[in-house]
Amino acid sequence: MKICLLGGGSCIAPVASTICRLNLFSEVVWVDDKLVPLRDTLQDLRQAAAIGGADTELRVTHDWSALADSQIVILLPPASHPIQAQRRANTVLAQHFARHIKRHAPRARVIVGMPWACLLAFYVYRELAAEASQVIGLSGGIGCAYLKAQIACQLGVSVQDVAVLAIGNDETIYPLPQYCRVNGIPLGELMGEEQIDALTEAVQDTHKKSSTIDAPYTLATWISQIVTAIALDKKRIMCVSSLIQSSTAQVYLNVPTQIGRDGAESVLQFDLTGSQREQFTELVTKSVKKQR
Asked: What is the pLDDT of residues 2-33, one digit of tens each?
């Protein structure tokens, strides 16, 4: 399998290194029409892959035709912009990437790992005239990672035993405590309501700051889990930005989604409390207005 990375920010090297170590892809190609990577960085990545026993070929090119035959294309954050200009700059860049993907790799699974990922995933989906499962956004990962780490820390348990679910968009995240569990035990049986409320507030604050946080290793680890789920058709349940469709609207939201060979194969249906249904309706209403 072949995977292409698009972008030129600080996340490129950690993502490339992490994917190479998976040893699931025959080729990892970094395509960028502006940035010339340092020769030492590329050599370092190749040497690290060799030490790890990965037979993945890693190369860099300015030629967009290198996208051809890619099974997965990943859009990564560019060099940082002032927060006021970030949304507009990333939108322009995502649309630029989408035009090249449409020309050279229209059937590839596309992972949008840039800030404002719900919004950008919608633009990429629309530009590609893609299948519903084809484009996946990564929005909410830092918040979910924080939630998982804090539950493990506060309860003094292994993070391996913690599972979390949340819904949200680029600006808001709502953890779903009834679906957050520790080795199958509901969170409400291990934490009091005040402790859960305080944790929810902290997660929401972390999510709001996520577009300004440089978290290349969090992003690289998250991407590695998603591409593994696609490459091995693992049918994993993960909180990612997926397409929600109704008879009147289409919108990308962070929701628990089954990830497999075809990408975001299905959005899980699950019960919400009355207040959570109101939150979900509000998410849809606000996101539809922005994703036009």
From this structure: 999 998 778 888 999 999 999 999 999 999 87
